[in-house]
Amino acid sequence: MQKRGLILNRTLARSATGLVALSLLLAGCGTQNTTTPPAGNTPTTPSNASFKVGLVTDVGGLNDHSFNHLAYVGLQAAEAKYGISGSVVQSHQTSDYVTNLTNFAQAGDNLVIAVGYLMDSAVQSVSKKFPKTKFLIIDDAITNRPNVASALFNTQECGYLVGVMSGLMEKQKGIPQINNKNTVGTIGGMQIPPVESYMAGFVAGVKKVDPSANVLVGWANSFTDPATGEAIANQQISNGADIVFPVAGATGNGAITAAKQHNVFAIGVDANQNYLAPQTVMTSALKAVDVATETVIGQALHHQFKSGIVTFDLKNKGVGYAPPIKAVPASIIAQVNHYASLIESGKITPPSTLS
């Protein structure tokens, strides 16, 4: 433990979180996201140890296998690339947000990162009290504070693509996981914009290629309850769903468990979650929180920090989808990539809210 309260030793945290850092691929346009140097080159890390970055997780914590984890992966990448000093504190309840953000600001951290839409009011409050400290909030738009940058992701775009894949898979014959009920399901952690945009894109993508499909929508009202995620997925599966798409942090891990138990497909979210169930998670809708985190850290370090909104989308590889498993035919992948090009060109604009 370091001196600042619940701050984790970054070596210990790295051992628990390194797996997804190796597996995150932005495959929507066939692009791999990696910070691994070419063979034979040994990078020299500059020393910027006096530049301190504090990262505050949402209540989902580092083990959500999702956006909190990815933010930490981005912090790790910035430590390796720039030699900055990074620390993490996990929030266990929403009342921790202000305290955790304040502790980093009081300790003199140059940049404080808040992971998640639910931290809006906390960031508004703390950034006002510490105007000389720079802040980054993930998944929320704060535009009235000159010391706050906001990273937003057009996840309706990658949601749409995995929806297209799901709709096309529903038409496939001879795949054991696909039944004849033409039904898929999606589960939201909480009904907030960053979650709903994924789900809205997913529903639209399914309906685009399979208008007669039945899309079941469920809400868990929690990002930290795998048992509820599993229960909702079980209900959707019993109602005919053979593909489930949870957008629910750690709650969604329970939905993946249910899909595996019932031998149907699941779709991961934020990170490539195939490693959780390699034969079950047919793809993942990706949100490059790690890239956004590392990018803004670099900007702050080099005096290029800009307040306001930075948007990550298909065009700048900020969202995408993970390489599908072998059960997904190449012909379907080709069609999904075609729809990706239509989104990038502006010919298709996926909705960000559920109708």
TrEMBL record:
<dbReference type="GO" id="GO:0005886">
    <property type="term" value="C:plasma membrane"/>
</dbReference>
<feature type="domain" description="ABC transporter substrate-binding protein PnrA-like">
    <location>
        <begin position="53"/>
        <end position="322"/>
    </location>
</feature>
<keyword id="KW-1003">Cell membrane</keyword>
<protein>
    <recommendedName>
        <fullName>ABC transporter substrate-binding protein PnrA-like domain-containing protein</fullName>
    </recommendedName>
</protein>
<comment type="similarity">
    <text>Belongs to the BMP lipoprotein family.</text>
</comment>
<keyword id="KW-0732">Signal</keyword>
<keyword id="KW-0472">Membrane</keyword>
<dbReference type="InterPro" id="IPR028082">
    <property type="entry name" value="Peripla_BP_I"/>
</dbReference>
<feature type="signal peptide">
    <location>
        <begin position="1"/>
        <end position="34"/>
    </location>
</feature>
<dbReference type="Pfam" id="PF02608">
    <property type="entry name" value="Bmp"/>
</dbReference>
<keyword id="KW-0449">Lipoprotein</keyword>
<dbReference type="InterPro" id="IPR050957">
    <property type="entry name" value="BMP_lipoprotein"/>
</dbReference>
<dbReference type="InterPro" id="IPR003760">
    <property type="entry name" value="PnrA-like"/>
</dbReference>
